[in-house]
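User: Fold this; tokens only.

Assistant: Input:
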Amino acid sequence: MLGWTFYVSVSNWLGTAANYSFAVLKWYELMMRLDRFWVDLGNNLKWLILGLVQTLSVAFFVAYLAEIGR
């Protein structure tokens, strides 16, 4: 499934009609030039870091409580 998604992402689609001609990395180049992409990437990284730190902190605390409660 991941391979198919990557294959479609490097295809030259226009609209909703399937066109599997190879477009190399045209869409990725376009995406990298957009300011909105970098803002979105930064926001996703912030959520990842904040969510990961909080989740791991709670998980370790609960595991600690479970261990000392034996």
